[in-house]
Amino acid sequence: MRKFKENILKILLYLSAVVTVGILIFILGFIFIKGYKLINFNYLFSEYKPSGGGGIKPFIISTLYTVGLSLAIATPIGVLAAVYLQEYAKQGRMVKVIRYSTEALAGIPSIVYGLFGAAFFVAALNFGYSLIAGSLTLSIIILPVIIRTTEEALKVVPPSYREASLGLGATKFQTLYKVILPSAIPGILSGVILSMGRVIGESAALFLTAGTVYKIPKSIMASGRTLTVHAFLETKEKGDIASAAAAGIVLIAMILILNLVAKLISKKLNKADY
């Protein structure tokens, strides 16, 4: 009877894995089949034409701007907040409230963040529909992810590292800067990679803050349309599934390339530390 239960459990595990992989392959295959015919040099590196026949260069540039700005704003704030909570703050009720608030922020729908960004960054601060308004909104969205992943990365650093460093006469700050943070870099970068995927895939918040202008943004104060917003508009306004699917293929490629770059940076930093 016990062996029978184990076999049933194994079958369920295998089926779950097969179904998960099958769904992933189906989604990627569907997008690829629908959109691969549109992808060529002209599509990737020419400007968009509302009348048709243009490319997605402005949207790629807007997406890269948004990713770079959001991570540049959220990463230092998130890492420093996690360091304070894990290494300096007294583990009491206040820290628990902060952690609970961080987890609650992670569960808020992105449209709510978009409404806040539209009211505060776009209207109150008078940024207007711009990449900086969209990036600031996205930085708030990804902040909880960076804080939580950084905290977990700091927790798994062996206590013996801290004790050895302090025992050799290093200050707490030196221990943090030279020992703890370098050891936690892989975990921190995992949070950055997850946040990167969230930023690239976001559309609702950007629709309300960054706008939908289809031209190449001249500065971060200009409005811009990211690839996800473009895919949404192509589907909603034109019903052009092929164009949206082609944008989706480019998005997937961008995520894979950026993830690869982040992992290479992580490996180089680890080698430099040792």
N-C termini distance: 52 Å
Low-confidence stretches: none
CATH topology call: MetI-like fold
CATH superfamily placement:
MetI-like
Number of strands: 0
Q: How many individual helices?
A: 11
- Overall form: globular
- Under CATH at level 1, the class stands as Mainly Alpha
Descriptive report:
It is a single chain. The protein has 274 residues and is an all-alpha fold. The chain has a single domain, classed as Orthogonal Bundle (MetI-like fold). It is 78% helix and 0% strand. The protein is built from eleven helices and no strands. It has helices at 2-35, 41-45, 57-88, 93-106, 110-124, 131-155, 159-167, 172-201, 204-209, 227-238, 241-273. Helix 8 runs antiparallel to helix 11. The chain is globular, with a radius of gyration of 22 Å. The chain starts with a helix and ends with a helix. Residues 60-262 form the ABC transmembrane type-1 domain. Its main location: membrane. Keywords: Cell membrane, Membrane, Transmembrane, Transmembrane helix, Transport. The chain crosses the membrane at residues 12-39, 59-85, 97-121, 127-147, 179-200, 241-262. Belongs to the binding-protein-dependent transport system permease family. CysTW subfamily.
